[in-house]
Design the sequence.
């Protein structure tokens, strides 16, 4: 989801500015301001991006286990997120 969010921002901003964003939280914040707030990406997908980031932090830094249900939910959200970004910013028919 992180890379798809970065790619969407790169297309939307049409500049290399997004390449200077170094953290997940910085990218998520920029994504939310530039794409979710104006309605280009559904707000529920923006919330999912934040929630998946929370799960990543729990697993990577706190060392706690992620439930199978949370993992399955994250995969479903990632698929929906990628589909939305692909359709909105990378549709070959445009």
Sequence:
């Amino acid at each position: 989801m992180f890379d798809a969010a970065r790619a969407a921002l790169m297309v939307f901003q049409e500049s290399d500015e997004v390449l200077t964003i170094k953290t997940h939280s910085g990218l998520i914040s920029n994504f939310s301001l530039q794409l979710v707030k104006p309605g280009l990406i559904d707000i529920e997908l923006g919330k999912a991006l934040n929630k998946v980031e929370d799960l990543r932090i729990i697993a990577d830094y706190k060392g706690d286990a992620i439930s199978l249900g949370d993992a399955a939910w994250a995969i479903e959200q990632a698929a929906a997120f990628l589909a939305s970004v692909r359709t909105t910013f990378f549709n070959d028919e445009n």
